[in-house]
Structure formats: structure tokens, C-alpha cells
């Protein structure tokens, strides 16, 4: 394997979007074969991204609650949990533990070697307990971060899932958090009578609201907050979208100062996390089936219209700027740096989750047709 | 409009020897000849039977599933046509008949779900309705009436157009055999129809727009969705739109009103008051404020009164977790990409629940019936149909292949 050096992005995608920045950028230029080499069979529709460890094992969780480990196309183990899995799991970088949250409101710590459940913790709530937000495990602290419809974000100790602290996650939270290298956490939440807030939580637990998109006429209860913020480490900024009654707003925030660098209105609402390209531009996938690209100064670069009425899942981008994403019609798109694109594969059913890169540069595409399609990639260099 | 004939006989039970028209017209006759001063006059005692007797009398029909991922008229029509050929004699059912299609629309057409139109989430997509209508017309249906009660005082065509149902397009696809009917009140009819509920639990009869009676065939065209109170929304739950706002609506004060457009929350969800029917027809056995108790029972009381001949599910692009835009951010769009059809509503709803990843025979207060009673099990006890998936023949796409697990129905309170 080529040695990869890049300023942003993760080689080992331990959570949806790569690492706790969630930027979706793989630090190497890749060309892929457009026909899947093989498919991993699952028991149910797959709505969570595939995650990897550095030894090349991949972990797949599906909507029947089945979690499986594979090495290439060979199943290593499986473990059936007590609820379906919508939230993408996360691996702890420092131990062999996989964290999986279910719609029944449980968080599991699973031994990646044996597949056995080490700990199961139920998130306390007085109403619906489901966990929908993609999980992250912060590299520096090994803390596990998630939220549930109980209305709280939790930071849990990776070793025993004991609560370190929690904070308000707003109404029916769906979006995951992201975290920077210092352990600061960034998240979005919908709050009644206030609107959609972008919040920074210091590693100590101290909370500060950086931005608030005022409550729309329909109310915060109607505003879906499903798209996680992402961090551009090399650019020193965070990108996030906040939905309005009509459309959304895309914001860029300075990590250092917390100042909003720019914000622009988007014509349609957004449910998928943005994707960061290595040139600093950012891709948005909206609920009218359009992928939009903006420069790091907020300038509009291009748009790419799919045939789908909406796009639910985010994409993954290699270092030369090619973005890969799926749509609900089952089409898998390759979107080139210049905005031209094409469908390279058609799944029989909808694609509702974000693709992932394996450490070898292969793309793993989950589908609701009960397959994870694997496209072999060839790493052609650290920069395109 | 067809002239009405008078019937003297009282129907024995739905699904028996009498035709639908006979049964429903008979029910009208009951209503017109009996002074409906009290529910006791038309109430029949619930029959208690052993399980063995129950098993032998529960109707079951095959249910068909097709994969279809986009709202393309030709693709949808082709898929539905194949399904109809597999599930039974749909052609024979509708030939030379007047067909009433109760469509699952909702109490507004002006909302959306995060900018996504209602027909991709909450309501039946017009392409599915048009494809169905086109097939029914080809099969020789005399007339196809798409109906639901819509909260608009405009013309029927205008009321439906907000949901994407354009009368010109439908006419073109159906050789002019189509009509839209907003059944929020008595409409063009001079009077309402009374329809008896065999063994009614919460309702002994329904007072409704005569469109639902002046017909040979009833089709329930449903959307595949979760439902917070009922567990899932299906062909049976779709009948909740039959009781008209003019009698059952929330915007009524102390008497019926032909201008009413309100929903039925007070009368059939919360059950804090009775409807303004011309005779007492609710038993009073509902539980105030308990949607999870009341809604499933009213569903069964509706399905018993209005025997559905054919259920069709639009499961291509739908909402999940809850049933409507009003549930706010707890609901989201998803894409099962399926069409489902069957001739028994309980069997069809049960297969639909299974496609969604749920057990249609699950105990009360477990998923998907997390907030109340399993209406499918209740319907089987009332002998309306089979809800145990192992007892239902599935044709077309295999159930295991078709399964597309929905996010669970929203749970109101932790158990």
C-alpha cells in the first residue's frame, strides 16, 4: 500500500465520514473499478455506514440488528442486538471495541475480535429511546459520543460506558456530533422557541452556542436536524447546515475564534452531512436530489442533479476530488472534481447511507437491498 | 348518478352470500326503517368462540408484493397488473362494476415534510392512483371514483388537485371513466347512508357519504407508513377517512354542518365527545384520551362495516416512524420501493407490516403497536381476516427479499 500523507481525512474510517471530523475525505487519490468485486450479505436493509479497523476488518450493522465482521468477503463473526441499527457504529482507536447504538435505545460495546458483547447500556429516557445519530469515538480521550430521542447528548467512557457528562440534544435528535483533535465537540440541535443551534461543547463539558438559526414559522418541532457538522482541520473551520421552513443555510465557522466566516442560503432542506474536498470546497446533498459544491469562500462552484427526488445520505471523497454517493433510486454516482458525473452502479433498492473507504482504498456501499457492495480502488497517490 | 333501489332484507354478515351492494344497501334499509334512537337497536353481541372455531372461519387470501422503485406510470402499472394477476380475480371483480377507491390522503395538501412533497411521504402518489385506475378501466370497470374527505370547500377536482391528482390526466389514462369525490359531507347526495357495524365494539353504525355505499367494489389505496396510535397505517386504517367532517369533525360546535372540514380527533381519537349523527351510534366503550385503545378499535369497526375488496399499497417513497407531517421532525422520508396488493385487508395489512420488518401478530404495546392495541389481531378475532404471517400466502416477490425495515413506530412513553 502506498504511504499516504494528507492534511485532512482519515485513512482508517472508524466511523461514518472517516474519523471524528466526519469530513468524508480519504487522504489518497483513488481510481475505482465501477463494477463491484463482491458483496457482503446482510440480514436486513443497511442504513448505517461500514466502519473499519487498521487490520482490515470491516463491521456492518443492519436494520435487523445484526452486526457482522468481515475480512474481505469472509464473515468472521456475527452478533444479534435488540433493535435495528440506523446510527453508524464507531470503533475505538485505542482498543478493540466497536460501539453500536440501536433504535431500542441501547449502546453496545462489542469485542471486535470475538464479536461478543462486552457491555450493554440502556440510555435513560421517559419516552422513545431510539439512537439514530452516528456515533463517534474521540481519539484523544476514547470517549464515545451519541444522542437519543430521550433528548440528551452523552459522552461516555469508552472502557465502561459510564456517563462522563451530557447536554441537551434538542427535539428528536438525528444528527451526530463531530469532534476536533482537542476533544471539543460540535453539534446541532432544534430547540423550541429558539430554533436550530450550533453548539460547541468543550472537553470539560462547558457548553457555548456559537450560532442560532432562528425558529421558523412552523416551529423547531418541525425542523429536522439530521446532518452532522464536519470539521476541516487543515482549513481550521467547521461546516454545518441548518434547515429552515423552506431551504436551509450553510455556514462556515472558524474553529479558532468561533466566528461565522460566511453563511449562504440553500434552496432546499438538507438531511446529509456535508463532504469536504481536499481543495477546501464543500459538497452538500439536498432533499430535492441535487448535489451542490461551494468553494471555501462560500462561492457557488457547481451543481449536479440526480434523477432522485431527494438525497438522504452523504458521500465520500477521494483526495483528487471525486465524490461518491448513492441515492434512493439505488444509483451510485461518481461526481468528478469539475462537477461532471455519472452513475457507475445501480443497486436494486435505495441507498440510504454514506459509503466508506477501506484502508486499502476500496469503497463499501451499503444498500437497502441487503448487500454491501465493494468496489476495488487503486490508490494512485497522495494528491490528485 | 345511479338511482337507488330499496332493499328490505337485513344483511346477515359481510363477506357472505350477499353482494357488497346488497349488504350495504341492506344496511341503508335497516337505517331507513328502524328508528335509530339508540345503539341497542342495531348492536349485535360479540360472539365468543373457541380458537378452533375461530381458525376455521378466518378468511385469508394471497397477498402480492412487487419491487418498484420509481413513480413511473408505465412501471407502476406493469407491476400492479402483474400483482393483480397473481392475487386473484381482480378483473372479474371490477368488470362492469362501479368501483370506489378510498385514497389515503390527509387533512391538508399544503404541507410538506422538510420540503419533500406529501405524495413522496404521507399521501398516495398520483401516479400509483392513476396506474391503478387505468388498470381498473382496462379490466372493464364502469366507473372508478377516487374519494377521500378533503378539507377544502372547493370543487372536487380542485380539492384533489392539491394532492397531485389532476382530473384531466386521470381521464386521459382511464378513458373518461373517473370521478373524484370529496366525501367530507354528503356531497351531491340528498341524504347520508347508515352502514351497520357487525359486532361493533365502539361504533354500531356509521353515517357516511353515499359514495361508499352506492358502489359495487371498494378498493382501499393506502400508503405504507407507521402510525403512532395504530402501529401501522394500512388499508384498514385508511377507512378512517370515511366518517365525514360534517358529522364527526372537530370544527363542529353542537350540530352537523355541511361546511365542516375538521378532522376526527375529538370523536375517534381522544373520544371526548360523540359525533353529531342523526342517531346514537357510538357505544361509549372508548377510553377518553387513549388513542392507542380507541383508534385500533374504530379501525376494525370501520373494516367490518365497509368490507374492502382490494387493498393496494403505495410503498415506493414513504414517511417512517409516524404517519404525517404533523408529527414534526420525529418522522422522516424513506424508500422501500414496494407495491403490495391483496383482496383481504387483514392479510394485506399484515403482509405490509411484515415488509416493514414488524410482526403483524405482535402483542399489544409492543412494536409496531407500541402505543396500544394490535388492530390486526383484533380484526382476526372479529374474523375479518388472517394476521399471522405463517398462515398467509405471499406471491410475487418473496417476503424475505421484499422486507425493508422501517424505523420503529414512535413510542409515546417509555415502558
List the helices and strands and how they pair.
The complex is a heterodimer of chains A (384) and B (415).
Chain A: E1 29-32, E2 38-41, E3 51-52, E4 57-61, E5 66-71, E6 74-80, E7 90-91, E8 97-101, E9 106-111, E10 117-122, E11 136-137, E12 144-147, E13 152-156, E14 163-168, E15 178-179, E16 185-191, E17 195-201, E18 207-214, E19 230-232, E20 237-243, E21 248-254, E22 260-266, E23 275-276, E24 282-285, E25 290-294, E26 300-305, E27 316-317, E28 323-326, E29 331-335, E30 341-346, E31 356-357, E32 363-366, E33 371-375, E34 377-381
Antiparallel strand pairs in A: 1-34, 2-33, 3-4, 4-5, 5-6, 7-8, 8-9, 9-10, 11-12, 12-13, 13-14, 15-16, 16-17, 17-18, 19-20, 20-21, 21-22, 23-24, 24-25, 25-26, 27-28, 28-29, 29-30, 31-32, 32-33
Chain B: H1 20-33, H2 51-57, E1 63-67, H3 73-87, H4 90-94, E2 98-103, E3 112-113, E4 116-117, H5 126-138, E5 143-148, H6 156-161, H7 167-173, E6 178-182, E7 193-196, E8 205-208, E9 217-223, E10 225-227, E11 231-233, H8 245-248, H9 265-268, H10 291-305, E12 310-315, E13 318-320, E14 332-334, E15 338-342, H11 345-355, H12 375-381, E16 394-396, H13 399-402
Parallel strand pairs in B: 1-16, 2-5, 2-9, 5-6, 9-12
Antiparallel strand pairs in B: 1-15, 3-4, 7-8, 10-11, 12-15, 13-14
Amino acid at each position: 500500500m502506498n504511504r499516504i500523507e494528507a492534511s485532512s481525512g482519515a485513512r482508517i474510517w472508524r466511523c461514518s465520514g472517516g474519523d471524528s471530523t466526519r469530513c468524508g475525505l480519504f487522504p489518497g487519490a483513488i481510481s475505482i473499478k465501477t463494477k463491484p468485486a463482491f458483496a457482503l450479505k446482510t440480514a436486513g436493509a443497511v442504513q448505517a455506514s461500514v466502519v473499519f479497523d487498521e487490520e482490515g476488518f470491516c463491521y456492518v450493522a443492519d436494520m435487523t440488528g445484526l452486526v457482522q465482521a468481515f475480512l474481505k468477503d469472509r464473515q468472521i463473526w456475527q452478533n444479534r442486538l435488540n433493535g435495528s441499527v440506523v446510527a453508524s457504529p464507531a470503533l475505538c482507536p485505542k482498543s478493540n471495541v466497536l460501539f453500536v447504538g440501536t433504535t431500542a435505545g441501547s449502546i453496545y460495546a462489542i469485542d471486535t475480535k470475538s464479536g461478543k458483547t462486552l457491555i450493554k447500556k440502556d440510555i435513560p429516557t421517559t419516552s422513545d429511546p431510539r439512537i439514530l445519530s452516528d456515533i463517534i469515538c474521540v481519539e484523544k480521550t476514547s470517549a464515545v459520543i451519541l444522542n437519543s430521542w430521550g433528548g440528551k447528548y452523552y459522552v461516555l467512557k469508552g472502557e465502561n460506558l459510564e456517563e462522563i457528562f451530557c447536554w441537551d440534544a434538542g427535539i428528536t435528535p438525528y444528527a451526530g456530533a463531530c469532534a476536533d483533535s482537542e476533544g471539543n465537540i460540535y453539534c446541532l440541535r432544534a430547540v423550541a422557541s429558539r430554533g436550530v443551534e450550533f453548539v460547541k461543547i468543550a472537553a470539560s463539558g462547558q457548553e457555548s452556542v456559537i450560532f442560532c438559526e432562528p425558529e421558523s414559522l412552523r416551529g423547531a418541532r418541525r425542523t429536522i436536524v439530521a446532518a452532522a457538522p464536519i470539521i476541516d482541520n487543515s482549513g481550521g473551520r467547521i461546516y454545518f447546515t441548518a434547515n429552515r421552513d423552506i431551504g436551509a443555510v450553510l455556514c462556515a465557522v472558524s474553529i479558532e475564534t468561533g466566528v461565522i466566516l460566511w453563511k449562504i442560503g440553500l434552496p432546499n432542506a438538507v438531511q446529509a452531512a456535508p463532504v469536504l474536498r481536499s481543495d477546501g470546497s464543500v459538497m452538500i446533498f439536498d432533499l430535492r436530489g441535487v448535489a451542490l459544491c461551494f468553494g471555501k469562500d462560500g462561492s457557488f462552484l457547481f451543481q449536479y442533479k440526480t434523477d432522485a427526488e431527494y438525497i438522504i445520505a452523504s458521500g465520500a471523497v477521494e483526495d483528487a476530488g471525486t465524490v461518491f454517493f448513492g441515492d434512493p433510486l439505488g444509483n451510485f454516482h461518481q461526481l468528478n472534481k469539475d462537477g461532471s458525473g455519472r452513475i457507475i452502479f445501480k443497486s436494486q433498492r435505495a441507498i440510504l447511507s454514506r459509503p466508506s473507504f477501506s484502508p486499502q482504498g476500496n469503497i463499501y456501499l451499503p444498500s437497502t437491498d441487503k448487500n454491501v457492495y465493494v468496489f476495488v480502488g487503486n490508490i494512485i497517490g497522495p494528491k490528485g | 348518478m345511479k338511482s337507488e333501489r330499496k332493499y328490505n332484507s337485513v344483511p346477515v354478515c359481510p363477506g357472505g352470500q350477499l353482494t357488497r351492494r346488497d349488504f350495504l344497501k341492506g344496511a341503508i334499509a335497516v337505517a331507513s326503517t328502524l328508528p335509530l334512537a339508540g345503539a341497542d337497536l342495531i348492536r349485535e353481541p360479540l360472539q365468543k368462540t373457541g380458537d378452533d372455531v375461530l381458525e376455521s372461519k378466518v378468511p385469508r387470501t394471497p397477498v402480492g408484493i412487487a419491487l418498484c422503485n420509481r413513480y413511473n406510470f408505465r412501471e407502476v402499472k406493469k407491476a400492479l397488473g402483474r400483482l393483480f394477476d397473481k392475487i386473484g380475480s381482480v378483473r372479474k371483480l371490477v368488470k362492469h362494476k362501479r368501483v370506489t377507491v378510498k385514497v389515503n390522503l390527509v387533512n391538508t395538501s399544503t404541507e410538506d415534510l422538510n420540503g419533500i412533497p406529501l405524495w413522496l411521504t404521507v399521501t398516495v402518489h398520483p401516479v400509483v392512483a392513476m396506474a391503478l385506475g387505468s388498470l381498473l378501466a382496462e379490466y372493464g370497470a364502469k366507473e372508478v371514483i377516487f374519494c377521500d374527505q378533503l378539507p377544502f370547500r372547493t370543487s372536487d377536482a380542485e380539492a384533489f388537485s392539491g394532492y397531485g391528482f389532476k382530473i384531466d390526466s386521470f381521464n386521459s389514462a382511464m378513458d373518461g371513466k373517473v370521478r373524484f369525490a370529496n366525501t367530507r359531507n354528503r356531497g351531491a347526495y340528498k341524504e347520508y347512508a347508515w352502514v351497520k357495524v357487525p359486532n361493533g365494539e365502539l361504533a354500531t353504525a356509521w353515517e357516511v357519504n353515499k359514495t361508499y355505499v352506492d358502489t359495487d367494489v371498494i378498493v382501499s389505496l393506502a400508503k405504507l407508513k407507521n402510525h403512532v396510535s395504530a402501529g401501522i397505517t394500512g388499508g384498514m386504517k385508511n377507512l378512517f377517512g370515511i366518517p365525514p367532517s360534517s358529522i364527526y369533525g372537530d370544527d363542529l360546535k353542537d350540530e352537523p354542518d355541511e361546511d365542516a372540514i375538521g378532522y376526527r380527533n375529538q370523536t375517534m381519537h381522544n373520544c371526548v365527545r360523540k359525533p353529531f349523527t342523526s342517531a346514537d351510534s357510538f357505544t361509549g366503550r372508548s377510553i377518553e384520551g387513549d388513542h392507542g385503545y380507541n383508534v385500533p378499535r374504530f379501525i376494525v369497526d370501520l373494516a367490518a362495516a365497509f368490507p374492502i375488496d382490494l387493498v393496494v399499497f403505495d410503498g415506493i417513497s414513504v414517511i417512517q416512524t409516524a404517519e404525517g407531517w404533523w408529527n414534526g421532525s420525529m418522522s422522516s422520508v424513506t424508500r422501500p420501493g414496494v407495491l403490495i396488493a391483496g383482496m383481504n385487508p387483514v392479510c394485506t395489512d399484515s403482509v405490509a407490516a411484515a415488509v416493514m420488518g414488524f410482526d403483524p401478530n405482535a402483542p399489544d404495546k409492543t412494536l409496531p403497536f407500541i402505543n396500544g392495541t394490535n388492530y390486526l389481531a383484533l380484526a382476526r378475532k372479529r374474523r375479518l381476516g388472517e394476521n399471522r404471517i405463517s398462515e398467509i400466502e405471499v406471491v410475487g416477490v418473496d417476503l424475505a427479499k421484499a422486507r425493508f425495515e422501517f424505523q420503529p413506530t414512535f413510542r409515546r412513553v417509555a415502558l
